[in-house]
Amino acid sequence: MTPQELRAFCLSFNAAEEDFPFSPEISVFKVRGKLFALSFLDARPLKVNLKCDPDEAVRLRREHEGLIVPGWHMNKRHWNTVTADGGLPDRLVRELVEDSYDLVVAGLPRADRLRLDRP
Q: Which SUPFAM superfamilies did the record assign (predicted)?
């Protein structure tokens, strides 16, 4: 996955926005103000921090050692750092981004979730 593909995919979700609260080099993708993906898109290898179910996070780290690791500068129980331009299939990276978005949306207040469901 290229940085452009990662950015486009993150922004394809309903109400997703890109922000730069930490520095101009670090893209933070949010839904309704809540972070679901964070990446330094110019870094090589390309990595992205993604929210993950804690049990799933451990399984993924074990199955993809070195390519999926505890979230860098994040809560290691709930976040993984995923190498997006390496040995992982793009399909898996997309699934992990989508899962992160879905977990964040599920934690939003009901009114915000309902607004997301509107066309």
A: YjbR-like (SSF142906)
